[in-house]
Each structure stands twice: as C-alpha cells, then as structure tokens.
Amino acid sequence: MITASKKFRNLEISEQSLVEMPFGMFGFEEMKEFVLLEKSKESPFKLLQATADPNVAFLLIDPLEFFPDYEIDIPSSDAEQLKLDDALEARVLATVTIDKNHGWFTANLVGPIVINSRTLEAKQIVLDNERYGTKHLFKNESLQGLSLELKQAI
Question: Does CATH place domain 2-153 in 3.40.50.1820?
C-alpha cells in the first residue's frame, strides 16, 4: 500500500502497520485508518498520518516524556473496545498544538490516544480528571531545544 504525506511524500506502508481507529479522532470521525510515523527514535515527536488524506496528520508525544506525573486510568469500556488484555499493551500518546501567535506548545492530556500495541487498534478517549486539559501548557524547561526538534519533525 502506498500513501501520501505532506512531510514524507509517498510512503510505502504495509497493511500490518496500519493503525485502525473505528471512531476516528474528535472532529475527524470519518478518518479511520492512520499510520504512526517516527522521523527518528531520538525525536520525541511522532506523526499520526491519515492514509485517506495527506493533509490530515496529528503531531503526537508520549506525555510521560514531558509530564512525568501524568496518570491515566483507561475506562473499562474503552479497554474492552480496544481489546486490551494487559495495561502494558497500551501505548498512550497526546496530540500537540502550537499557538503560532505566542509560540506556546500545548498537549491534549484529557483526550489521549490509546493504541493497543498488539492489535494496532486505537481510540481517542476522554479522561475524567480535572487535573488535565485539552491545552495543557508545556513547562519552559521542557521547551529548550524543542522548537528546532519540532521544525525537523513537521
């Protein structure tokens, strides 16, 4: 299978590496199939690229790399839908937004993406935790060197 990406041009993707999101992403419910792209293992950024539209991609991070006290309790209904047999099968990622006016980086910590690493089925879930928001600001010390890394990632 070949898919297009604004960043990576034409990519050859095997069917086994596709991330299936039966419910899509919030606001992009019609997009059901994605591929998780990583420029390098050293980069904290990943790209969740829609296979149906090269213009739809989400910048992601592992929230624990930037928010070490981040805790997630996956609701049992979501765990069942994702067929998670073990918590270690869950890969949790958060979308990143850049405020172009201020240069702020924010992460959606209340609506993480959970991927079953065994089946590659994923879902964006909503946490019932008032500590987190959809625009959780990165701490300044986390941002040192991040702008350059981000420009290389996108």
Answer: no
